[in-house]
Amino acid sequence: MNDFAVDVQGLSKWYGNLKAVDNVSFQVHKGSSFGLLGLNGAGKTTTFKMMVSLIRPDSGTAIISGYDVVKAPMKVRSHIGYVAENPAFYTRKTTLETLRYVCRLLDVPINDQNRRIDYVLGLVGLTDKKNALVGGYSRGMRHRLGLAQALLSEPQVLFLDEPTLGLDPLGAKSMRELILRLRQEKEVTVLMSSHVLPEVEAICDMVGIFDHGHLVALDTIDHLRSTASNSLNIEMVMAEPDQQVAQALRLLPGVNQVEVSGAKLDINAIKNEDLRPRIMKEAVANNANVLSFGLKENSLEDILLHLVASDASDLPEQRSGLIPTSLFRLIQNNRRD
Length: 337
Fold this sequence. Notes:
This protein is an alpha/beta fold. It is built from twelve helices and 14 strands. The chain has helices spanning 44-51, 73-78, 95-105, 110-124, 139-151, 169-186, 197-203, 221-227, 243-250, 276-285, 300-308, 328-334; strands at residues 4-15, 18-29, 33-37, 59-64, 67-68, 80-83, 157-161, 189-193, 206-211, 214-220, 231-238, 255-261, 264-270, 290-295. A hairpin with a 2-residue loop joins β4 (59-64) and β5. The relative contact order is 0.13.
């Protein structure tokens, strides 16, 4: 039995002379969550649109819930939910009229429409807005309505394009909790494309990082953190600024860089040995009054910027130490000869 809700193999898309997506392959397990990341123009949105059958790939395959996006696009659409970055609705329709209209488009049985509508409205917190005109909705409410309409088909796979972009902190938190609840209660597979990296970290089990049409990394966030750099980042906070301590640490073998920000030192050191005891000993020897000292984890933003920092002509394997060795074969296979 196939355990993958999404199976993408060799997917490519051309726009004129530009190859927007170049031989991309990945798989997403049923019930898991996957984040597509990259800078603008990296190819993630084009990949997203091919997976939901909005645009046709030029080569390769995408199997969603067991159906090919090219051979059976309507079957794919009946098994997925899709929330666009900026959900648009008829402003003169009420919430109820909007969802009934979507039910008809989805061929939801008439005798099941009210149950599904009541369920999704309760889930997204819009039950009291059932008879309100959509034209009066705030951005956050439109996002919630977008999620509600995407859930009417009772999808096996949910595609979310920038689900929290433009929302206030409370709205973003509410959307994140909804997505996690869907995974837990309905075992929905979630794929999301987002620039809001903390949201991706909170929701996704795995991420794929795109750069110039290529999938340059595919891994869990924790594993990317541990392997995405060949150096350690250490933060030291002193009671007061002390340039003498900073200069002494710069002279330590194995210390690459020391950045000073008031009483805080950001120290970058080689990774093949743990220099923390030596760094602390040197700081104390120079009369530093240390308030805190510890490793700084690479954030998802750090990882993303490292991986996409090189010029498009650079080979991924030349980006020293930035990509786990286990991913080299994947990346090399995804590169055009």
